[in-house]
Structure formats: structure tokens, C-alpha cells
Design a protein that fits this description.
With 492 residues, the protein is of the alpha/beta class. It has a domain of 284 residues: Amidase signature (AS) domain (Amidase signature (AS) enzymes). It is built from 17 helices and 11 strands. The chain binds glutamine.
């Protein structure tokens, strides 16, 4: 059984050497055996998954038409609402919450005949870069259990890297698909803002959040994107654009594309020399393939982190005000010693929010409440919006000169678990190369470029103009073909 790409899985399902039930059982067995250590899942749904698999097997036997992900077992980040499984955002605030509806992405997966294995771990409400802040404990990197798998979609990335799902869906607000993809040695794509509906994606920072795929190969990204993309009237920011055959993009030959890079980013002293070396090799390789290499400047890039860490917490503070102990999930026990200075209702809100949210979420709510407050709105939030526009304009002019921008996904390989947990500024700097794509709303992907001498994966990022996903997949696919990249699992 070769499970290192969706194409090979599809081939085996099509020639009936493998049934979807056998395949699903294989993943469930591996989860039972290996996920105790990795903790990529918060919830596994064996019955639901096997039922879906049996349905697909029956459809195949009857010669019925099937969706693009027919019979393929997939994991989804536990921030997408599912009717059949709990949706917790790894927060005590939503412990035990059952959504009355499915997210658009979940509906799309079901329409594509995918098999949903379960819900994956994340940083609480997707705020973080290490999948350590969830209330049920951290996920571990399958390449080295003492290292982080990145975040916030770390559970999704780890599940694919460890062979506990054939593909996964994560979300990316400031890098949460690309950074864990790089850290776990898998492929990850953040689509153009609006390409995939946010209906049923629990909001962290609404103007930045976007769901997207993880897979072992570039083609896998295209196939899953094909399944989940498309207009949805229930999300007012969903784009009216036709879906494309993204799965075919990865295998197309590269046209003489213009590939840009920012010399300062490659020269940065914080960038691991082995990652730099691989990026320089990649540039040479694209040149050899007939691409034109262009040196670029993104003058406002250095403001991306401060801008993001004003915009994202501002939106988070507003979005998370809905968790009041009354409407969703967790409510604190009444306090018998409650004094009379405050109404019992207000006291219940306070207690529920104090007990329900973890420290990182509280930090962001406080930051965002501050930056949106009457006295500081102009100085922080409005200013950040203006800089955000300048960052987008830098990209607009860059994409007049190039088809894609190549660079690192992360400055280093995965750090030790716990190393940055109590140092938010260090954790925020993780996002140096990823947040600007979200601020600008452009698509970006990360692909593995081999293992570092320390045995840990390294990633390469490609960013493109809005709606240029197909081109990015083609450019990424060509690189993997050229280096003869063989996808492999972190665990046998
Ligand atoms: N690490 C970033 C943050 O903490 C990005 C998170 C994300 O993309 N969801 O906000």
C-alpha cells in the first residue's frame, strides 16, 4: 500500500486493490497506535469515518459518479464547525460544544465524498505558532517528539506527516498552515482571501482567516483545494470566481515564469544557513528551468509583524466577545461568596471568561481591546490599517514584475516544545515571513525542501498575486519534480 500521495491512493481505490473501508481502517489503526505520543487529534470519529467509507465503496461498486476526494480519509482542524463531532477550538470555553451546522468546507468535503477521520489539535482559537496553548495539551512533531510541530494548525500538519490522515484542512490567519507545514515536512497552501468560504470557520481575525489544505505532495494541495474552493453566499467576503482544475496545475511544465526574491530576506542573520543554502539552490534551479530571476524590494515588509499584531488581536477582541458563558460551551459555576457590588449576570460573564480562556487568548483580547479603545484607535488600529494597505501596494507592484516570490517559510527548523511558550514576542517573530501574505490577502504555499543536518524538515515559501494558486502550484510542482522529491512519512 503506497500512501505517500493522493494520486497513488486514488489509483489503488480505482483499481479496487484497496477499498475505502480498508484504507480508513488503516488510518484509524495508526491513530490508535501512534497518536498517543503525537496528539494530533482532539477527536476521532471511527464510526462516522467507516460509515462514510462504506458509502463510497458502495457507490463505486454500483458505478455511481463520485466526488474528487472519493473515499480519501482526511482530518480537519477543530476550528471548523461539524455537526457530527464536537467543535472546541482547543478551548475550555467551547468544551463539549456541538455545532448545529457544518462549515462550508465540511459540506464541500462531504460533497466530494471525502472520509472525515476527526478533528485536529490547534493553539487555542488558532492563536499561536506551536500548538501548545490548547487546553488538552500540545501536539508533538512526528520527526522529533521533543520539538514543536508548529501552529496553529499543528495537529493537521502532524497528522499528515505521521500518516494519520491522507490530507488535512487547516486555517491560516498569519501563517498557521505554512509554518506547521514547513516544520512537519509536508505541503501547505493558504489560498487567496475569499477563495474558500469562511462560513462555519470559527472567527479569530475575520479579515485574515482562510482555510486551506495540507498534503504530502503539491498535487494533493491542488486536489483538496479543488474540493473546498468556490463561492458561498453565506460568506460576504467569498469571491465570485470559477473553480479551477487545481489538481492538474502541479504537473504542468513551468513556463518561463519570472521568479522574484528579496535579497535582504535571504541575507537576514536570523535565517538558518542550511535553509538559506536550499533557497539559493532553488533559485538556481528555476533559472536552469528557463525562469527569469528578479531581485525585489518589499519596503514595508519590516512592519508586517507589528501591523499584524495590532490588526489580528483587534479583530480577535471583537470576535471573542461572543463567548459570554451564556451562548456557547462553557459556563462557570456560580460563586457562593459573590459580593453585592456587581450584578450576578456580569459576575457570571467575568468568571466564565476568566476560567474559559487561556493566557494567550486573554493577552490578545486585552491587546485588541486596548488598540480599539477610543483614545488609541487612531494611533494603533487606524495606523495599522494604513500600513496594511502599503504592504498590499508593495505586493501589487512586485507582481507587476514577477509571477511568484520565493523565500523561506520560517527562519529556523522546529524549536523545542516549551522554548517560546512564555515568551510571546519570540513566538510572534516566528511569523516574520508569513503574516504579510494574510495582510495582503494573497495566496502562499510552503513545500518541503529536504531535511536539515539536525534531521528536521525545512520549507520553502512561494507567494503569488491574488487568485494565482494554479501558477503557484505549477511552480512548486516543477521544483519537486526537478529535485526528484520523494514524499515520505515521518514515522514508519
Ligand atoms: N502565529 C500567528 C498568530 O499567533 C498566526 C496564527 C494563525 O495563522 N492562525 O496569530
Amino acid at each position: 500500500m503506497d500512501l505517500t500521495s493522493l494520486s497513488s491512493i486514488q489509483r489503488q481505490l480505482a483499481d479496487r486493490s484497496l477499498s475505502s473501508r480498508e484504507l480508513t481502517q488503516h488510518y484509524l489503526d495508526r491513530i490508535a497506535k501512534l497518536d498517543g505520543d503525537i496528539h494530533s487529534y482532539l477527536h476521532v470519529d471511527p464510526e462516522g469515518a467507516l460509515r462514510a467509507a462504506d458509502n463510497v465503496d458502495a457507490k463505486r461498486a454500483n458505478g455511481e459518479s463520485m466526488g474528487v476526494l472519493a473515499g480519501i480519509p482526511i482530518s480537519v482542524k477543530d476550528i471548523l464547525c461539524t455537526r457530527s463531532m464536537p467543535t472546541t477550538c482547543a478551548s475550555k470555553m467551547l468544551s463539549g460544544y456541538m455545532s448545529p451546522f457544518d462549515a462550508h468546507v465540511i459540506e464541500k468535503l462531504q460533497q466530494s465524498d471525502a472520509v472525515l477521520l476527526g478533528k485536529t489539535n490547534l493553539d487555542e482559537f488558532a492563536m499561536g505558532g506551536s500548538t501548545e496553548t490548547g487546553y488538552q495539551g500540545p501536539s508533538r512533531n512526528p520527526w522529533n517528539l521533543n520539538r514543536t510541530c508548529g501552529g496553529s494548525s499543528g495537529g493537521s500538519a502532524a497528522s499528515v506527516a505521521a500518516g494519520l490522515a491522507a490530507a488535512s484542512i487547516g486555517t491560516d490567519t498569519g501563517g498557521s498552515i505554512r509554518q506547521p507545514a514547513a516544520y512537519c515536512g509536508v505541503c501547505g497552501l493558504k489560498p487567496t482571501y475569499g477563495r474558500v468560504s469562511r462560513y462555519g470557520l470559527i472567527a479569530y481575525a475575520s479579515s485574515l482567516d482562510q482555510a486551506g489544505p495540507f498534503g504530502l505532495t503539491v498535487r494533493d494541495l491542488g486536489l483538496v483545494l479543488e474540493a473546498i474552493a468556490g463561492h458561498d453566499p453565506r460568506d460576504s467576503t467569498s469571491l465570485h470566481v470559477d473553480n479551477e482544475r487545481f489538481s492538474e496545475a502541479a504537473d504542468k511544465p513551468v513556463a518561463p515564469y519570472r521568479i522574484g526574491f528579496v535579497p535582504e530576506h535571504l541575507a537576514s542573520p536570523g535565517l538558518d544557513p542550511e535553509i538559506r543554502g536550499k533557497l539559493v539552490e532553488a533559485i538556481a534551479l528555476y533559472k536552469k528551468l528557463g525562469c527569469q530571476i528578479v531581485e525585489l524590494k518589499l519596503p514595508h515588509h519590516r512592519f508586517a509583524i507589528p501591523t499584524y499584531y495590532i490588526v489580528a488581536p483587534s479583530e480577535a477582541s471583537s470576535n471573542l466577545s461572543r463567548y459570554d458563558g451564556a451562548h456557547y460551551g462553557f459556563r462557570s459555576e456560580p460563586d457562593k461568596n459573590h459580593g453585592s457590588s456587581e450584578s450576578p449576570l456580569v459576575a457570571m460573564y467575568k468568571r466564565s471568561r476568566s476560567q474559559g480562556f487561556g493566557n494567550e487568548v486573554k493577552r490578545r483580547i486585552m491587546l485588541g481591546t486596548y488598540t480599539l479603545s477610543a483614545g488609541y484607535y487612531d494611533a494603533y488600529y487606524l495606523k495599522a490599517l494604513k500600513v496594511r494597505r502599503l504592504i498590499r501596494q508593495d505586493y501589487d507592484s512586485a507582481f507587476e514584475q514577477v509571477d511568484a516570490i520565493l523565500g523561506p517559510t520560517t527562519p529556523t527548523t522546529p524549536f523545542e516544545l516549551g522554548a517560546k511558550k512564555d515568551d510571546p514576542v519570540q513566538m510572534y517573530l516566528e511569523d516574520l515571513y508569513t503574516v504579510s501574505a494574510n495582510l495582503a490577502g494573497i495566496p502562499a504555499l510552503s513545500i518541503p525542501i529536504g531535511l536539515h543536518s539536525n534531521g528536521l524538515p525545512m520549507g520553502l515559501q512561494l507567494q503569488g498575486a491574488p487568485l494565482s494558486e494554479s501558477k503557484l502550484l505549477t511552480i512548486a510542482g516543477a521544483y519537486h519534480r526537478e529535485i526528484d522529491y520523494q514524499p515520505r512519512l515521518a514515522l514508519a
